[in-house]
Amino acid sequence: MYSFLRFLLVAMVCMTAGLGHAQQAAPTEEEEAAPVKKQPVDDLVHPTVGTTSQCEAMTLTLVNKHVNYKGRPQEYADVYVSSPKSANIHPDGDKYYVNSLEGCATLVYDMKTHKRLKVIPYKFEDKKDSALWSKPSSLYPFTHYTENLNTFQGKPVESAFSHGGRYLWVPFYRRTYDFNAQDPSAIAVIDTKTDEIVKLMETGPLPKMVACSHDGRHLAITHWGNNTVGIVNIESLNPDEWFHEKLLVVDYVLPLNFSMTEKVDRDADSGYCLRGTVFTPDDRYLLVGCMGGNGGIAVIDMQTQQYLGRVLGMMPNVRHLVIRDGYLYLSVNNAGYVQRTQLSRVMDAAKSIHGNAKTATLGGWENCKVGAGARTIELSPSGHFVFAACNLASKLYVVDTRTMTVVTSIAVDSYPVGLDISNDGRFVIVTSQGRKTKGGNAVNIYQVDYAEPEPVLEKTDGAALLEKDGNDKLETNATDTTSLASANPDNGIATRLGSDGNDHLLYYVIGGCAAALVACFLFFRRRRC
User: What mean pLDDT value characterizes the chain?
Assistant: First the structure.
């Protein structure tokens, strides 16, 4: 009898541990807090679905969410949401993608029902997935690791569509075995028609941002880890023909020789901490924000594929960049501002850079104070409104670009980082990643009702390449990817057991097995009686 009680107690502990682990905020290694002045983590914010904010220009309504924190409302619970870093709404507006950084997966949701359609796990093995890898270049040598280089889990950060939305490019913060993110990472390419991985390519250390040129011919991958930017040629409609074209250096390559046994804060020890990345409308130049160092915006001439220098003069700690209607908009993380100036002024300053100084200073920026920790920003289709995810304020702010003033704000689950807006402007999706193991593990979906109708954006995300070629007949990589993800999102459980930083499903399995054993014990005991 005592043995049975001990066994039952163990089973209950296992099940309780599983539930507790699933609800706790996952610790994240990618908070981008290093370049920011340390601030206390305040009380957590968890707005309820139905929360609204109204002004003369619009009404914001929280219409749905996906959450995985302690005390979560069960109707919105999703155990796969683990430190969600970013969101991307497909150009067609039928579904959206959420990068679960600590979950090592990208989650796919239906835009109308908000039901999870699929989990795309990033768990790879050298031999099994060798056919997915593109031909290696000489740009990204391994200097610390030598064995089983392609056996790892990837931690997805940001994403970008190419080829009119046909492909989604997802860079990994690091390969899980690379303790301090000092060797090459990788980027996965998802075919959005099947939501399967069709290509893997090497990158530099700690890639965060990725951007597609308007003509669809180039993809830029910004490496936070060592002051470099990789350029990939994606002009072909066949993924097997894409190749690394150039590796550009912003002033200097950061030496990487960190400890192999002790953790280093790579959000701090990363040089300029390259972040926001955007092509100019004519694709002649690439602009990259510098969150660290002495800041500024790095300018790359895409015609000559040469780094020109950095434009200074804006507030320090530049995080995100957006270009619209002749203006360059940027978010200032630490101070909590949205700034803008005419793009032509930025380019004139960049073209004036000569000699060894490699910098030019530009004043006269327009400023709008938003919430502390301004992270991702996006504009409405008309360009009249900037939506800003403000991390420390736990709010979504809206700025009217015609007056550069805040018109409204609404609460977001603590602590928001990523944001995307649908091409018709009707929906804004915000991801909350968490800070110091608190908050986060939440995706909030807002509906926007404008006082004045918004246009619908078209021909985005590299669609110009398809127009030039006459149609969108893209070749599909024939690689068998059935081992990577199942059509049923819940069938991905087996691939996630024991995953780095997200093994809560293992606890569920243990608890369930224990309960089954107890039931069997009682059943046979009764039969003996």
Answer: 86
